[in-house]
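note to self — DONT lose this again. spent like an hour looking for the file last time. sequence + predicted structure for the chain T wanted, 94 res
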Amino acid sequence: MKKTLLLSAMMLTAAVGLAKDIKTAIFTTNPEMHCESCENKIKGNLRFEKGIKSIKTDLKSKTVTIQYDADKTNVQNIIKGFKKIKYEAKEVKS
């Protein structure tokens, strides 16, 4: 019984330690993303930024939705990533 409780406590501690702080941010860009080529440029380059988990683009709303690990990056660093590819990004408050 003691071994089972100890093992359960250890597994719970390990699971809590591995939990990641995944956040989502939505951006608009300048120049506006208006074609498939723009989408590919953004997705193809930002995927290499540290902590980025997923990138979704929407041409209709001209937005980029990014899921990221908040333990590894933040909105300011993502905006710097946009600047590297000559886009000015602004976070949209949802």
